[in-house]
Amino acid sequence: MSYSGSPSEKPVAAGDLDRSHIGQTVSFQANDFTVVFGTLAGVARTDAMVYLSLQGVGGGTHLKDEYDLPVSQNVYLQMDPLSSAGKTLADAERVLKEKFDELKKNLLDREQKPGSE
Q1: Using an 8 Å Cβ cutoff, are 32 and 1 in contact?
Q2: I need a surface site. Which of 50, 58, 62, 68 has the fewest CB within 10 A?
Q3: The Cα angle at residue 17 between residues 11 and 21, in degrees rounded to 5
């Protein structure tokens, strides 16, 4: 199995996780057969490994609440809807500015032509 997240998730190297990610929904491939989904409760890091603790899954017979991953392994975080919306709005603003600039240029060109009204 090769898990690569969903369209609503962004990949982040496990080694880049820090305290700002605590409480976020995370998914990752724990081994060749298991994909894990959960809420990040804690992160510990060494030079080679990252240790993740998940909220609310401990004590079960089939679910672990701690995982160790290489620092280079991708984990997948839910994209922040506000930052996604901000990016979409910034893209829309850029397109509108380009269209207004083009319209302004066309109007100035028209005014400068002799015999135009």
Answers
A1: yes
A2: 62
A3: 90
* pTM listed for this prediction: 0.64
Smallest Cα–Cα separation from 38: which of 18, 20, 58, 19? 58
Residue 14 has what DSSP assignment?
A: G
Taking Cα atoms as reference points, which of 57, 59, 50, 4 lies closest to residue 27?
A: 4
One pLDDT digit (tens) per residue for the chain, 117 residues = 799 998 889 999 999 999 999 999 999 998 898 889 889 999 999 999 999 999 877 666 677 888 999 999 999 998 866 655 566 677 778 888 888 888 888 888 888 877 655
Q: Minimal CA–CA distance to 17: which of 74, 95, 83?
A: 74
What contacts 69, CB < 8 A, 6 or more positions away?
14, 28, 30, 49, 50, 51, 52, 75
Tokens of 12: 């982040």
